[in-house]
């Protein structure tokens, strides 16, 4: 008999829906990943570095050149200076960064606040550390933090709050004023923050991303996590990073060095080169994805789905209550995939207590124009 450490965990919704999309021959707008290529120069650089013998372990903390590029990008984007040696750690993906940050500071019996809906990796990572997630629902239609409910959820055992902005699956942003409010709320408490900012450069309509990196007070207690996968269209490279003050970084690295020791060497070389040669990539990203969002939303205007354009991420929520109110969102996502050839993600799976009346599915618009046109045509026919 195996006594499972994660008795409530099954196969993730991303695997389930991508498999169903493949077996149904549906367009896969479920799991979040681009169906277009990464920049050619970035891909070429990987081959070059492999040919040049960069195939052995990189430093545990990450390739110095890449950590420096991350620090330089942070300075350009947020006007703050972080130390590339003592505050930046390269990890095999943001998922691993989040896992290590949680293992580093969460003790048995600690409580961790997550906002519902929340990305699916947080809770199992907390459970493996012996902690317990306390779920605080985000408010209403705009998925904003409800500070009243957050305040009520705090207890002497609260050791961490996990933020995610831009937010998966809703696309909602946390504003600078909300960060101020959060800082005031936890000012005299011993609480860490993970700020999952993997979609930091996918923010639209001229809005500036309010990074915890630029919030001096919150940053002192924070692990800020990002992913090269999202920013450089290479989700399969599983390369990310975490930025934290030196004392927190030291604890994080104690875990990271035994979970994976280091990231993949030639990928780090390639990313460092590309970031040095193409700093404009990051600046062009909001416009690039905003055009995809606008195209997809314009094409869906005649459909029976209702929606408000997202302000961040590469996901668009669609309300289907005018179409099949009789189906819950898991049934709807499967029906759309099997019967209408477009795979989506139901968002109830990201909740502890799904809202019974909610009729929302998430679609990924990180796709070629042709894919978006084909998907929209199918969606408009429903
Ligand atoms: N956090 C969020 C909110 C995400 O959507 C993702 C994407 N899968 C991750 C973390 C993980 O990123 P990575 O693929 O770099 O592990
Ligand atoms: N972050 C991706 C999404 O939300 C999925 C990542 C995964 O499959 N684990 O779609």
UniProtKB/TrEMBL annotation:
GO CC terms of this entry: cytoplasm
Single GO MF descriptor: pyridoxal phosphate binding
InterPro entries for the chain: Aminotransferase_I/II_large, Kynurenine-oxoglutarate_AT, PyrdxlP-dep_Trfase, PyrdxlP-dep_Trfase_major, PyrdxlP-dep_Trfase_small
Organism from which the protein derives: Pseudomonas frederiksbergensis
Pfam families linked to this entry: Aminotran_1_2
The protein's name in its UniProt record: Aminotransferase
NCBIfam families hit by this protein: PRK09082.1
Annotated SUPFAM superfamilies: PLP-dependent transferases
Names of the cofactor(s): pyridoxal 5'-phosphate
Record has Acyltransferase as a keyword: no
Domain named Aminotransferase class I/classII large: residues: 27-379
The family this protein is said to belong to: Belongs to the class-I pyridoxal-phosphate-dependent aminotransferase family.
Record's keyword terms, sorted: Aminotransferase, Pyridoxal phosphate, Transferase
């Amino acid at each position: 008999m195996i006594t499972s450490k994660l008795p409530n965990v099954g196969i993730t919704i991303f695997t389930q829906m991508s498999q169903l999309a493949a077996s149904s021959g549906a367009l896969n707008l479920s799991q979040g990943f681009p169906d277009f290529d990464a920049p050619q120069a970035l891909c070429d650089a990987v081959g070059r570095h492999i040919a040049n013998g960069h195939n052995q372990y990189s430093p545990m903390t990450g390739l110095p050149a890449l950590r420096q590029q991350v620090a330089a990008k942070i300075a350009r984007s947020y006007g703050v200076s972080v130390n590339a040696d003592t505050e930046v750690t390269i990890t095999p993906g943001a998922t691993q960064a989040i896992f290590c940050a949680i293992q580093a500071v969460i003790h048995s019996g600690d409580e961790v606040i997550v906002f519902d809906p929340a990305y699916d990796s947080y809770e199992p990572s907390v459970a493996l550390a012996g902690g317990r997630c306390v779920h605080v629902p985000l408010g209403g239609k705009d998925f904003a933090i409800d500070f009243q409910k957050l305040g009520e959820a705090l207890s002497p055992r609260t050791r961490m709050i996990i933020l995610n902005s831009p937010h998966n699956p809703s696309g909602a942003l946390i504003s600078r004023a909300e960060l101020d409010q959060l800082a005031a709320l936890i000012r005299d408490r011993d609480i860490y923050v993970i700020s999952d900012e993997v979609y930091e450069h996918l923010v639209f309509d001229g809005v500036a991303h309010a990074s915890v990196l630029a919030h001096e007070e919150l940053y002192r207690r924070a692990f800020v996590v990002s992913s090269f996968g999202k920013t450089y269209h290479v989700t399969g490279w599983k390369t990310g990073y975490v930025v934290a003050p030196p004392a927190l970084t030291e604890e994080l690295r104690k875990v990271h060095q035994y979970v994976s020791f280091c990231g993949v060497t030639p990928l780090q070389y390639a990313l460092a080169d590309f970031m040095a040669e193409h700093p404009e990539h990051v600046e062009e990203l909001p416009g690039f994805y905003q055009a995809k969002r606008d195209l997809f939303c314009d094409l869906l205007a005649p459909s029976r789905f209702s929606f408000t354009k997202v302000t961040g991420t590469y996901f668009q929520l669609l309300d289907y209550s005018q179409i099949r109110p009789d189906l819950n969102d898991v049934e709807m996502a499967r029906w759309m995939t099997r019967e209408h050839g477009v795979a989506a993600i139901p968002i109830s799976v990201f909740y502890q207590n799904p809202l019974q009346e909610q009729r929302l599915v998430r679609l990924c618009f990180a796709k070629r124009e042709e894919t978006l046109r084909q998907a929209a045509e199918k969606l408009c026919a429903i």
